[in-house]
Write the structure tokens for this entry.
Amino acid sequence: MAASMSATRNLGNAGKSLNRNDNATFEQEQDANSALSDLDRGLHSMKTGVQCESIVRFPRLFEKYPFPILINSALLRLADVFRGGNNFIRWCILRVTQQSEKHLDKILSVDEFMKKIVSVYYSNDPIARAVTLRTLGSISSIIAERKNVHHIVVISLDSHDAVEVDAAVFAAGKFSEQSKTFAANICNKISEMINGIATPVELKLQLIPVLRHMHHDICTAAKARAVCMSLLSSYPAENFSMLTLQTLTHLAAQSLVDIPDQVSLLLDHLVHKDPRRAVKVVALQQLRKLAKIAPHLWKYSFIQILSRFILSTPYAALKIGGLHVLTTLSKSVAFQIFFITEDVDSSLLEVCTLCYQHSDPTLVSKSLELYTSLAIAYSKSKGSVWLSGQNIVEDAMIALQTQTILGSSCENKAHEQEALKLCLSCVIKLVQTHPDTGESFVSCITNLLEQSQEPSSSMLCECLAAIGSQNSKVLQTSALLQVLSLLTKVSQSQENLPRFGTTLCTLVFQAAEGNPVPDHVKDLVLTCVQETDPWRGYQVARQAMRYGQSAIASKIFASLAQKVSSEHFYFWLMGLHDIGSGESCLQERRCKNFEVLSTIMDASLHYQKGLTLLKAASTPNFPLQFQCEYVNLRVDMMQVHSQLIRTCNTFRTCPPPAIATALAITNGQEITRCGQIVNQLMKCVREYEDLSTRFADLYKTSFDADPESLKNIHQLQMSCELMKLAILSITQDAQDGQTMFADKLMFCSGDASRGKGDKFSQQLQTIHKVLDTLIQTEGVQKITHKHTEFLSESAESLTRVPNCFPRFFFQSLQSTALKLAVSPQQNSSLDPVSIQYDTHLTLKVEGVVQHGSCPGLFRKVHAVKMEVISNLQSKNPTGPETKVTDPTSNSLTQTVEPHNDYFSISFLLSFPVFGIHSVSITASIVDETGTVWNTGPKVNLFVKSYDDAIQRAAQSKVPARPSFSPLIS
């Protein structure tokens, strides 16, 4: 029972990681008006606790219904409560405004809202005035240019109440950030207060950060910078110096014109002017900030100064801070520019050698990160690995191996584990840019696995898996025997499969490269999974599906299906079991040609059963649309391949009749001799083309998919295109065949760079090369048995290549969805929206972009494309004659960029023809590269076009009901 509950819990987490939004997105929807009414009743309660409870629920309401009408109404009600409530209630409302900052621009009645808030400022309570000032500062984005509010803030700066002055400083900073006018006017006031003798020190420290927002124009920025520079000399205290340097950095980063001067100033304080460690730490932090914002504005002399400081300072914390700055720069374009334009000395390499001179793991790991970034940047810019007579890539590799050996044997302290993790990430980056280093790293890490303990062993295994995902060949040559030995020890232990055991299984799958593993290895993996936690077993099965080991995955899924209590999880696991069984049919049966069709039929039956179970596992919250469509396309692809094989078999069993030769001689085209087979092949071409289009459609709907998943879909689409072009190249005459052959060469050359050596891409390249040779030797003037054998073998080989299921099939690392609200709406009885035929319907579409826990991980929403299409469904027979020029449909498209994840678009639609019209509103996402993703949703409504005059005339013709008196008489 405990195992069943554990499986339910863990597999539930697996199901939740499928293609969907977060749980909050799928909560039971409550009508916005009723939700607002419930909160409004709480606001009018006589109990302060009930009022506060209602107030703190407003931010959640805004996130759930982020539409202007509701937000405007809700905030006006909160403003009324703010005006009449006590200070604690006002403080709660202040928190609401701060948490709902991105929704403030949706307030429609800004003046009314502001007046209700400002009215509290004129009370005699300084606390109330302070809360009001902070509230005004929090909503400064929508009232930035209100002169009366500016006046209130300036007056409050001269208040005798400390709480009110603190609030005024807060408001001054907010308004300076939003308003150019306020920033220019308040700059002198802030300067006078800072330099004033009567101003307390604590207040001066609060006023200095206000100057960081004086960047709206050059004059104001220069004035603010001059004030801060004078403060550095006038107030040399530690807290003043640190705060002033931070303010100057922020000011330079926003204005961009003073960044080189600011870098020089920070380096001056770091090296010469200020000996205090705290100030040096702040200077390094600000240097790193400028390195992130504008690395291209740094000079090589700055790098030299910083390198000398790192080598000379005796403090490890300062060395680490300096390494942070250099590492940030080395990952940018700055170092590549330096390597091209400057004569780089050996000081940078001396900094990198700190990894050999210190025992601090954090310092060592940061120096290794710099070493790795330096090697990558230098080889990219120079095309060479030799710097100052040293092979920088080889030196970095040796340093990384040394630290990996030391780090894997250290104690399980947090900072040591973080250092090892950073070191291994550098290993992965170096192998990505220099694949020749992979074998050496794999050999080193594999030898460490037997002696290492958790969590170091897990990190080492994950590093091996990352290298194996780039080049699985190195695992076969350098790691497979040790991995199998470790896996055997894990299977013999009585404990559950540890975390690194799952990764060991993944390494075995990677090394197999899609080929069926030997039976003893398969039994070894199944033994490890048998007694372990169900969640670990699910992870192993999922990895097996992703690396083409469907036979192993099928057995694991079948055993896990008996350990869950939810029927949806059961259907999901059994569906995966049948899909894996179908794939294993294709992989395990190395059959002759006459058995291929029966094999494909058996696999299709398993796939169809799995597809049915996946549909049964889907719920409104987890529709599994991608999974079902992917499996459906896989089934259809196998059917098309089998149809092509049957067509080629037909050519063998039913050769052209004798008269076909005479007809071909008469027509002058030898290929017409095979008219029947050509027609069947052209039917296969149409089916491949349809499959390719459907794969492209699936690609366009997978906005949240990771790049490898998209690559998988693209490869399947390209396989359809390759088979289509191969058939067309063979069935065309000589002239057309050359054209198709040129197209095929363009296709293959474009796809060759995407393969990265995986088995599917290798098979596509093999088909391409064989087709190239075949056309050059046999020609395309007539179809021969060699042509049909090539097509049949190509289709058969594509069915036997193991299908590695994409990661997006099991989990989505980013989640994005559009939520639409359309007005006017149909009523609850779904009656059509009525409109006069001679007027236009204003269709307003509001929407919000909803994100998961990792927004923008792979791609970001740049804009939303809305398409509205209307069509006449049924014409009203009682209406007038329709003119030929009267349009019966509308097709409009607009693109809008969301602001704070909100967007609004309006369309004008005309319906001059009487009757019922259907209107379809479809949303698509446009990413930052301009690619359109057809993610949906799609909203439909019906519109009734009518004429009042005709309706009244029709009603007047209806005979009146007779009264009782005539009937009696």
In short: The first helix runs from residue 2 to 16. Confidence is low (pLDDT under 50) at residues 1-30, 733-742, 748-756, 964-969. The chain has 43 helices and eleven strands. The domain at 566-783 is CATH 1.10.3450 (Hyaluronidase domain-like).
